[in-house]
Amino acid sequence: MGFPKDFLWGGATAANQCEGAWREHGKLDSTADHLTLGSRQIPREFTAQIREDRVYPSHQAIDFYHHYKEDIALFAEMGFKIFRMSLNWTRIFPHGDDAVPNGRGLDFYRDVFQELKKYGIEPLVTLSHYELPYHLAEKYDGWASRKCIEFYLKYCETVFREYRGLVRYWLTFNEINSAILEGNAYFSAGILSAGKKGMSAGVLRQEEESGEGKADRRGEAPVTDGNCKQEKDEEKNRQYNALHHMLLASARAVRLAHETDPNYQVGCMIAGICQYPRTCDPKDMVLAQKTRQNIFWYCSDVQVRGAYPSYIKRLFEEEGIRISMEAEDEEILKTGCVDFYTFSYYSTGCVSADESVAKTSGNMIFGAANPYLETSRWGWQIDPMGLRYFLNEIYDRYGLPVMVVENGLGQDDRLEEDLTIHDSYRIAYMREHIRQMEEAIHDGVNLIGYTPWGCIDLVAASTGEMKKRYGMIYVDVDDHGNGTLKRYRKDSFYWYQKVIASNGEDL
Fold it and tell me: What is the average pLDDT across 41-57?
């Protein structure tokens, strides 16, 4: 059957991983700007004060801020129909709770959208992509505070009004379900009060500003072995309530978008933490079902169906989660359902009732290793057919148009002496995933777009590295920000150009 004629081929980036221009033209710090460089072996760290002896990858990244015209021209040369990008909230509202927006920030994104329009490229704009204003983390403890909903809506109202006619597709939050992953409190939800913050690639350690133990700025008692469990339970409860506030904010943003412009289409974006049962043992089957419900389906059930699913009540009971539900919350969720469904898909894993089964690594909790799959250098298992499987699961469940808005292979690409980059491994990865997307379309899935992650090299979220490259465009900059920042076309650039020109027929 092939891909539909109006299929949206493109690529994806995020402001905090590509934009740079830290504190330029009125922009202030986001939570991402306080995370240091790490690696697969060394975790990224949070520092309350920006230190001269540390590298903060988001401060420069690939400097899209000053190179956007060049980069968009390259996207157009590849043939993009759509470009997924995000707005840096602090470029528009530097503190997050400012009375008026920053005009220079508004002008920058308007220029970007107009440049995209010049080439006929549709923007797909993520409103919040792991870059909460740091001031909101400091003053309000991030999304743990219900007050953040109003700040977010003011920001949404501003950009919905400013960019009417330039943007049609919006996503409310990037990988919203990642906010409840263990250790992700700061990274995903800006919760500064968490004693430890981290990602699955390694625990982010909060820098201790004094010798008074691990007390945070709110004067809580230092963590000891005796109260570690209590602290962990409180953090988990805080994360689930933060997620509740984000879900409410998303629902209200959907309503606001539709009121601002009936042509606006607003989607959810779910982290594709996709897992199989490790064996046919019924214990593994039930565990896989519960894991998928609690981590994968939970948020999209709320965002698509407009209510908390019945199965989540058991999780709340067993984990002691107490959601601070107010009188109007259920109605807000019910009347703010999204128009389309998007998700990230890189890898799959397995779950096993046998705790001794080895786990794979990665920037999400993929689970136990699957013996039928190959593994990338960064420990992510490659599973193209799993994409077809989950596309069918998603569409059968919701019946909404679907986009795959992140997918790709991170590798340490090498710039050769003749200024070429031979990344046949990336071509092979994308080719097989595109073939499985076509199979899903043949299955009946209404798949409308594909934006592979890091269409241009950018900073890796999990480690802060540049050498973990996803792009089809090479950027000459290393982990420490050294390099010319020149852009070079990889072999995958020309291959993807051909794929788009043939609408997926020539792979």
Answer: 93
